[in-house]
Design a protein that fits this description.
Dna Ligase, domain 1, D-amino Acid Aminotransferase, Chain A, domain 1, alpha/beta, about 425 residues, globular, 5-stranded mixed beta sheet, disordered C terminus
Amino acid sequence: MSLSLFAERQTLNQPLESFTGQPAAPDFFFEPPALAGIVPLMSAMFGGDDLAAVAQNLIRRAEDNPLDADALLDLSAVLILRGDPATGLKIQGQALQLRRFYPLTQASRQPELRLLVLKMPGDFMANTPVEFLLDNPRISVDVLYVAPDLPPPMVAPEHDLVFVAISEGHRNERILNWVGALTAQWGLPVINRAALIPALTRDVFWRQLPDHRGMVAPRCDCLSAQYIRLHADEFRYPLIVRPEGSHAGHNLALVQSEAELQHYLTDEREALFYLSPYIDYRSSDGQFRKYRIVFIEGQAFICHMAISSHWMVHYLNAGMTTPEAQWKRDEEARMMAHFENTFVATHQPAFDALYKCLGLDYFGIDCAELPTGELLIFEVANAMVVHDMDPAETFPYKPPQMQRIFAAFQNMLFGRQKLSITTVSPMPMLPERV
């Protein structure tokens, strides 16, 4: 059966009540884990597996048992990874009709910490891929999908902490407001409070950027396609343009003139776009260097440094893995080895101002250093991919650095758990709807 036909199976489009009754409240948060999750699937794809066999196995599982929500959710992830997001998201919706709570990892013994991750329906950019940070037998991780049109659990979760994984974006403001109200009712300590996340959107962040001489962000406006067409002759070029809500360079373009901007819009169907002035940030050797840095309770950690001769730098398109790029890897290794006493020492005042401004427990930035020495911030986000999938034989310096990041994240969770033991009141009961 083709994957598209599978998505159209009528048995999988039945309403929720035909699959399950209302779950008994005490059992909602205590189901055995059966989900593979994004870490093994994404790692397999990253390592060269096209996941075709995995997809077929998941299809057979769902055909044998149309109520197998785990198979459906894993299949949706596989399809998105294989480049069919439309079908993948459709199947994800069917999985969430069946169940919204998914135990992801379970500690080998009684867990010392139970973490509940709140996600929204969507692709891999819709939520923080926090699973990569949480490979620890002392931590039990559960995922709850939430949205105003999905019924919340009828009781507050019996977890130690809640992590809000929903990403920034104007389209997510309604759900983040809803999640803020929901977590307030629960009374559990929250990592990355929902109310703080909307400030990360590109057009909001640059306006509230701290007035600090060592840090700049290009102006960013979110404008409708109609407005841009009407006022294209008023902009100063060159400009960077991208669809609102896009990531990873999707449909990102550098336009040099009004004509190029009008031509760009003819091929785009999105309603809103981000426009920013282009800033030349190349180094003295003509190369562009872009850093990904994550902040955990204000402490900065380097995730990677991509070096490219092209202005649009992403780690996967920067040629960091080729034999000819050994010099790039050597430079990245030196950066990781000396990050605290070089890069951080230079930019610590800017980092402190940024952390104080945002107030988030965990977030990341993509940035560069201008020839003037200032920190140029391209993006601030809570859902950047931070992983350890790069092959150790090619990047032997990366596993130790990523483990430092993972350990710092886990230590933050344990520290927050200890602080909350004497401060969190008993869980309040929830109404059937919020």
